[in-house]
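Predict fold of catalase; 496 aa.
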Amino acid sequence: MVPNKKLTTASGRPFAENENSQTIGPRGPILLQDYILHEKMAHFNRERIPERVVHAKGSGAYGTLTITHDITQYTRAKVFNQVGKETRAFLRFSTVGGEKGSADTERDPRGFALKFYTEDGNWDLVGNNTPVFFIKDPKKFGDFIHTQKRDPYTNCKSPTMIWDFWSLNPESLHQVTILMSDRGTPYGYRHMDGFGSHTFSFINAQNQRFYVKFHFKTQQGIKNFTDEEAGEMRGKNPDFAQHDLLTHIDNGEFPRWAVKIQVMPEAEAATYHINPFDLTKVWPHGDYPLIDVGILELNENPDNYFAHVEQAAFAPAHVVDGIGYSPDKMLQGRILSYPDAHRYRLGANYEQIPVNRCPFMVNNYQRDGQMRIDGNGGKNPNYFPNSFDDIEADQHYKEPAWDVNAQVADWYDRNAENENDHYTQPGNLYRLMDETAKKDLIKNIVNSMSGIEGPKKDEITNRQLCHWFRADIGLGMAIAQGLQLDLSETMKHMPA
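Predicted 3D structure, encoded as tokens:
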């Protein structure tokens, strides 16, 4: 007969009384020496780590990336080096603006963050379910996110703040158009596409650089809620997307995505008519068609949500040999900010947590810090170079140098001439929609903009209307009519 496991403290001390505090007599005060009480309460008080500033509400699962096509002409990354190769992965989905307890059917972009456990280290691809974003310079990120959070006076979400920011930053229009369509309320996580969003580099065995964008096309089919359906689900089951993902994987119905890339030769980046590093723009598929790479399948639910999903930490800084960065300003900003956010939330040693730990060889001279759990390097040297160990910097992993063409460092206007077309792509997107999608988009915009209030209401509304008019005259007129505005006054805000 197998003996029962003993109840112990975190330090391993067995104890007998887990339900009654030690007191002076049956009705007397509790003794300070009841350490078990203190340990239970102190740990309970610390069970909630700081939630993510953004992407707080999320779901995740493990899976496998299987390579189906040869792309070694573009990259030497080992994850892609053989057709049929399988690499373990972890994917975390999330909403962006809501708190951890918010509904996961809110109108919001969805995070699509991947961690691939490769033999050259962990590769994190941290994107969204949209190919673009609201801004293209990281200096604006904190300001933008503040508008998506709570008003400092009312402590409520504020359409006025949101539309004020968007109306003052027309670069947001492309992403706003996507957000206000039914793509802003996807039917869970299985029925939406994912994107790396940023432009990255591929480097091949000949040290040639290509620019690349990553696409993940759902094989479950695109499916969205209407605004009314999403609102109903928020009240019925605020964890709909979490439950949907979990139960389908538990039932063996593993969701899959076709992995594809767009590739741009490095030399074309300087002359392409669209800035290829502008996160508010897409690369037209007619110029850079999708290239098949593989299949991503999610097939394993984490056995503990907190240990895996809540403590998962993704950073675009985490690339591997054969995959690199680009001059994408938002990417450059996230290279700094994401690891910094994880150090704040989880501690300096967050990469030792099992979900974040590289399962292959790791050698460095990082030491100490809270929650160091890997032996801290033992008695080995904690400096480099040294005369005692055999760790060396392998020059085979050196990337080719960037050619910056002797450019002058300055604070360049992100919306200067030739960088300020914020209307063509969102207008084209609207014109590609069928009539039902157009009607839903207009209705959702009208419903949201109707929440603008206060003494600046007319100014903000008319400024945003000007952007809609510039994207598409018909779209602007339909929104103005939906808002029941005086069309004679509205016509003053139409572009010349």
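The chain has three domains: 1-47, 58-159+170-352, 424-493.
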